[in-house]
Amino acid sequence: QIIIKDVMKSYYTGDIEVRALNGINLKIKKGAFKMILGPSGCGKSTLLNVLGGLDSPDKGEILINFDGSMRDITKFSKDQLTLYRRQKIGIIFQFYNLIPILTALENVELAARFSNIENPKKKSIELLTEFGLTEKLDHYPNQLSGGEQQRVAIARALVKDPVLILADEPTGNLDTKKSNDIYRLLKNMAVKYGKTVLIVTHDEDMANKYAEKHIFIRDGKIIKSEEVAHK
Amino acid sequence: QIIIKDVMKSYYTGDIEVRALNGINLKIKKGAFKMILGPSGCGKSTLLNVLGGLDSPDKGEILINFDGSMRDITKFSKDQLTLYRRQKIGIIFQFYNLIPILTALENVELAARFSNIENPKKKSIELLTEFGLTEKLDHYPNQLSGGEQQRVAIARALVKDPVLILADEPTGNLDTKKSNDIYRLLKNMAVKYGKTVLIVTHDEDMANKYAEKHIFIRDGKIIKSEEVAHK
Ligand SMILES: Nc1ncnc2c1ncn2[C@@H]1O[C@H](COP(=O)(O)OP(=O)(O)OP(=O)(O)O)[C@@H](O)[C@H]1O
Ligand SMILES: Nc1ncnc2c1ncn2[C@@H]1O[C@H](COP(=O)(O)OP(=O)(O)OP(=O)(O)O)[C@@H](O)[C@H]1O
Ligand SMILES: [Mg+2]
Ligand SMILES: [Mg+2]
Questions:
Q1: Residue nearest atom 8 in ligand 1 by C-alpha distance
Q2: CB nearest to A176's CB, from B14, B173, B202
Q3: What residue's CA is closest to ligand 1, atom 29?
Q4: Does the Cβ of B194 fall within 6 Å of ligand 2?
Q5: Is the predicted pLDDT of residue A229 greater than 50, yes or no?
Q6: Confidence band, pLDDT 50/70/90 cuts, at residue A70
Q7: S-S: B157 plus which of A143, B43, B89, B90, CB 3.0-4.6 Å?
């Protein structure tokens, strides 16, 4: 379960303040499968970054229950955050963030080893094979197509069997068939394995196909569904 | 007009050959507006790279008429290719390739200045404003959201008023409204200004909305439309 309370986050360029998150309040059940939608620049990636412990908000609390009790990750020490990121959550970044000097397999294996799962190498190969990348295990990121890099990023997020999956536009560079495979897989993670899955997407059709009652963001705030229907 | 004849291109990882382009034959009329579709890894970005003079094929010819006569760009010298890239074509890359140490405005202005158009700074500001980025002119790429970076990349490709526009998934990180704005703009470039526009996209709905008779690629080859209908 996730409770986000009054979260604010600003960026500063020179002395101009950009309120990327301007009072986010949200409750998400365990095992939920939710789509996050909103116009470009409205704060979706920033929200995922603070949920993933990659960035801290200026104000507010983020309570997450990932080991039996609700913990406020905004109060974590650097070490606690590192453990949280490595073991509890899988993040698929908008721009993948693959390590350029590691092969596709090494990128996934590194995440697997950091998370203490059993058989990290075997699991990494299995996932990459499931995503059609058997022939690309030894390719470096710059030797892969856009959609191949995206699939490596997805494998890296999922191999550690995380309790919370944060996906920032996970199929932007994949064709329709592979996109559907990924959404079905992610939905299965929630429905069958009880993982909490949050997906940022611009694809309203995919969002409507796999989920209902999406989370809408505009100008750093959650907007109510009634307001959305009229825009 | 563009004539692509028997173009082949392979990549080598170790001693394994990947035939990214395996015999491409294609004729494209001047002022055409064509979508290029195909599964992840089938060769779309590679095709755009050789059309854009960023990479040379191993075999075949690419004849382009951009200054009155058909020229085979595979025979160009390094200098000729540089001039071709800077002045004649606008490329929107799958991963943008913005220069990290230049601001949004400087990124667009640099391309404008290299292309010899009049009023490069004014035109750059105009385009970025049209894309909703007035407040972000002085932001660096890492201070922009994914969709904002994408819009800067689009502005940079278009500001030089190119005769050929090559767009590799130009709206992957944009919401539906902005995506439609971009497609409408690109279509206008062809219909109203006679520019040749080739768009790689995974979004079949957008493709069908704005064009007909798409170009389909699979395993580095063009496939006939009748074959596509049955898959
Ligand atoms: N530098 C490279 N070295 C080795 N193989 C490469 C290299 N670049 C691309 N490839 C391979 O060439 C093939 C075509 O790549 P390309 O990037 O053109 O695909 P694409 O159609 O654009 O895919 P996507 O839709 O995923 O972006 C892929 O199988 C890819 O793995
Ligand atoms: N490092 C930064 N410095 C300054 N402003 C920033 C920085 N990072 C993001 N922003 C701004 O914060 C706002 C929210 O950015 P965010 O990346 O969360 O948007 P987004 O909803 O993910 O957009 P997209 O759909 O385009 O990816 C944007 O207006 C952006 O320009
Ligand atoms: Mg984003
Ligand atoms: Mg590509």
A1: A143
A2: B202
A3: B41
A4: no
A5: no
A6: very high
A7: B90
> Cβ distance A150 to A173 under 8 Å?
yes
* Contact call for residues B141 and B98 (beta carbons, < 8 A): yes
Nearest residue of chain A to residue B146 (CA atoms)? A94
Q: What is the pLDDT of residues A147-177, one digit of tens each?
A: 999 999 999 999 999 999 999 999 999 999 9
Per DSSP, the residues of A10-72 read EEEETTEEEEEEEEEEEEE-TT-EEEEE--TTSSHHHHHHHHTTSS--SEEEEEEESSSSEEE
Write a three-state SS string for chain B. CEEEEEEEEEEEECCEEEEEEEEEEEEECCCCEEEEECCCCCCHHHHHHHHCCCCCCCEEEEEEECCCCEEEHHHCCHHHHHHHHHHHEEEECCCCCCCCCCCHHHHHHHHHHHCCCCCHHHHHHHHHHHCCCHHHCCCCHHHCCHHHHHHHHHHHHHCCCCCEEEEECCCCCCCHHHHHHHHHHHHHHHHCCCCEEEEECCCHHHHHHHCCCCEEEECCEEECHHHHHCC
Q: What angle do CA B31, B35, B40 make, to 5 degrees?
A: 150
Starting from the CA of residue A220, give the closest ligand: 2
User: Which tens digits make up the pLDDT trace of A109-125?
Assistant: 999 999 989 999 999 99
Question: How large is the greatest C-alpha to C-alpha distance in chain B, in angstroms?
Answer: 51
Q: What is the mean pLDDT of chain B?
A: 94
What is the rounded CA–CA span in Å between residue B219 and residue B226?
A: 17
